[in-house]
Each structure stands twice: as structure tokens, then as C-alpha cells.
Write a structure and sequence with these properties.
Layout lengths: L12 H16 L3 E8 L11 E6 L3 E8 L3 E8 L2 E8 L2 H14 L10 E10 L2 E10 L3 H4 L5 H13 L8 E6 L5 H11 L4 E6 L2 H6 L1 H8 L17 E6 L3 H4 L3 H5 L2 H10 L8 E7 L8 H4 L4 E7 L4 H10 L12 H8 L4 H4 L10
Parallel strand pairs: 6-9, 8-11, 8-12, 9-10, 10-11
Antiparallel strand pairs: 1-5, 2-3, 3-4, 4-5, 6-7
């Protein structure tokens, strides 16, 4: 029996289950913990024998139960994912219990056309927070006509022939607002869904300013978050940070402190060693303004400069959509959509920003 003790004050139903798990683990002398997670059927229900506590809400379901009287399992299902914490007396018993849980609640890979699961991250007063949800994404074939020829060729190489692990792990897309970077992000997420999990950091300034936040996202497999370092998957992880030109600028160290240093360390320094991690950053600033450390040979896996469609490409784009409008100069994708939908360009500036997770 362990003489270890802990003070734990629950603040909600999930905390109550965790608290009870800790209490029982101490009573039984269980000192080995295993965690894991996998996708499950949307209609799966947590029904099990030897149940200790059960909690269900509108968005999640949790159960705490004994596994073969030799281990404790705390299981949560939420948004089509199952997360499990096993506590046992030894590694062997924990592994056996994990296998029993896998057999009871088997993984089910679901193919949903037009949707990809994305984990969204933010830093809060209580620490890093994440939510996983499925977003609608287009295929590259559906949207390739939205891009000028050189941009289209570069994106096609990403969705069709990109191999992670060769060269750098930093991907940079720059281009003026309205050139379609967010649409392309969604298409890449769709194309890579079989080999890459997508993580979207909504507050890049906080992410690089607070080391604990960054480590939580890229290193930790916490049971209540969808960390990147999960042993349940051999997939790579695509970390997306939109509109982060200040991290890459020539005076980045003056403007963002340690942000640039931590970014570079994450993609090819000590922090990033052993991680299957690709970092994709979008920015409105041209690459000529970037810090020399960012653009040095071998650091970037890919760089794409997004450009407006030429006037010929823009007029073809309008014709294919049945529009009688014509243009006499290059146009961004946003400007073309405003013509088709009958919106004035200046009105678009007052619309809410459309981001990756919209």
C-alpha cells in the first residue's frame, strides 16, 4: 500500500470522477498510470459492469469503473473521440486493462466526406484549453480554380506529393488579405487527414510567450486535452497559426521577445526533436520582410506567396460562375466573390473576419 496522499478539491462532475479515481487508486495501492485515446462510433454509449460513477452531459459522457478487479478506468467520450485513463498496480496490469477497454469500446475510423476534425487551442486564466470539433472542408479539386497558376501549382504539390520529414518542418504562406489562404488551409487539412492531425492555435502571441502553454500543446498528452504526443496514433501533427507575420519579421526579437526563438527551436531545435510536427504559418507580410533566421536554406519545408488572379484568370473565374461581370485588372478571390454576390468591396471590410474554424 502506498503512503502517498493527495488533497483534491473537485469543481465539477468530471473533477468528481477524477477525485474518486485518485481516492480508489490510493486505497488499492495502484501506482501505474496509462492514458490513450481513439475515435469511436458517434452512437456509442458508456455502459459497463463494475461501474462506480457515471456522468452524462449534452456534449460528453464519463464513466469510472473497475477493470477485471485489477485496475481502474476513467473513460470519457466527446465529439466522436474516447479518452481513457487507466490506473493499476503495475505496467503489465495497466496494459492488460487498456486492452480490455479497447475491446469493450473499439475504435471506429469514420470517413465523413467534407469534414475534418480540428483541435482548437487557447490559453485561459485556468491554463491551456482545447476543443475538438469537425469543420467543413473542401477538396483541392473543388477550389483549385480560385488560384493563379503559380499558386495553384504550389498548392497542388502540397496536397498531392508532400512528404513530411524531408527538409524543414516550417511552412509559410504569405499574401495580401482575400487571396484565399484560409480556403487552401482547409483543402490541405482534407488532403492530409489520413496522416496528419490538425491543431489550430487561436492566440499565437500567448502560445510563444508562455512556454508552459506551448509545451502543453506540443508535448503533453493530458487526458482532458488532445495533446500532440499521443501514443494512440502514428500520425503527424499540423499546427496552424494564422496572421502571424510579427513572429517572422526582421525585427521579430524586438517585437515579440522570445517568440521567434521558440518558434525556430520548435521546428528544428531541441524542442522539436522527435516530434512529428509541421508548423504552418500564414501572414499578410511579404517574405522579403522576414527575419534571416526564418528564410535560411533548409528551414522551410515550403513557402507559397499568394497572389491575386490575373485579369484573364479572374474573368474566366467569373464566367464559370455564370456572372456577366468583367474586370480589367487582377483581382483577389474576396473581390471576385463580392462581385458575384453583389456586395461592394468596402462593405466586406465591415464583415466579421472569416477564419479557419468558421
Amino acid at each position: 500500500m502506498s503512503d502517498f496522499s493527495i488533497a483534491y478539491e473537485p469543481h465539477g462532475p468530471n473533477d468528481l470522477l477524477i477525485g474518486r479515481l485518485l481516492e480508489l487508486a490510493l486505497e488499492k495501492g495502484f501506482e501505474w498510470i496509462e492514458t490513450n485515446g481513439w475515435p469511436i462510433a458517434d452512437d456509442l454509449k458508456l455502459t459497463t459492469k463494475d461501474q462506480i460513477l457515471h456522468f452524462r452531459s449534452e456534449v460528453s459522457e464519463d464513466v469510472l469503473f473497475f477493470v477485471n478487479n485489477h485496475a481502474l478506468a476513467k473513460v470519457r467520450i466527446q465529439h466522436g473521440e474516447l479518452r481513457v485513463v487507466i490506473v493499476a498496480a503495475s505496467r503489465q496490469e495497466a496494459e492488460a486493462a487498456m486492452q480490455a477497454v479497447k475491446e469493450q469500446f473499439p475504435a471506429e475510423e469514420r470517413v465523413e466526406d467534407g469534414k475534418v476534425a480540428v483541435t482548437f487551442w487557447a490559453n485561459t486564466a485556468q491554463g491551456p484549453w482545447s476543443a475538438r470539433r469537425k469543420i467543413v472542408v473542401p477538396t483541392w479539386e473543388e477550389i483549385q480554380g480560385n488560384y493563379s497558376a503559380p499558386v495553384r501549382e504550389s498548392i497542388a504539390k502540397m496536397v498531392n506529393g508532400f512528404e513530411p520529414g524531408k527538409g524543414g518542418q516550417l511552412i509559410i504562406w504569405d499574401g495580401s488579405p482575400g487571396t484565399g489562404k484560409t480556403y487552401a488551409l482547409r483543402a490541405v487539412a482534407h488532403a492530409w487527414k489520413n496522416w496528419a492531425n490538425v491543431h489550430y492555435v487561436s492566440d499565437a502571441d500567448q502560445f510563444f510567450d508562455r512556454a508552459a502553454y506551448m509545451f502543453q500543446v506540443i508535448l503533453t498528452d493530458h487526458e482532458s486535452h488532445y495533446g500532440m504526443n499521443s501514443e494512440s496514433s502514428d500520425k503527424w501533427n499540423l499546427l496552424i497559426l494564422e496572421d502571424c507575420g510579427e513572429l517572422l519579421s526582421a525585427d521579430a526579437k524586438l517585437r515579440t521577445g522570445q517568440g521567434l526563438t521558440r518558434l525556430l527551436n520548435m521546428v528544428d531545435g531541441m524542442i522539436g526533436q522527435g516530434l512529428k510536427l509541421l508548423v504552418l504559418i500564414t501572414t499578410n507580410d511579404p517574405i522579403k520582410k522576414f527575419h534571416e533566421a526564418v528564410v535560411r536554406p533548409g528551414r522551410m519545408a515550403q513557402h507559397i506567396s499568394y497572389e491575386p488572379l490575373t485579369f484573364d484568370e479572374a474573368n474566366e473565374w467569373l464566367r464559370q460562375r455564370g456572372s456577366n461581370e468583367t474586370v480589367e485588372k487582377p483581382k483577389t478571390l474576396a473581390e471576385l466573390y463580392s462581385l458575384v454576390e453583389g456586395r461592394e468591396p468596402q462593405k466586406m471590410e465591415r464583415l466579421a473576419k472569416v477564419g479557419f474554424g468558421s
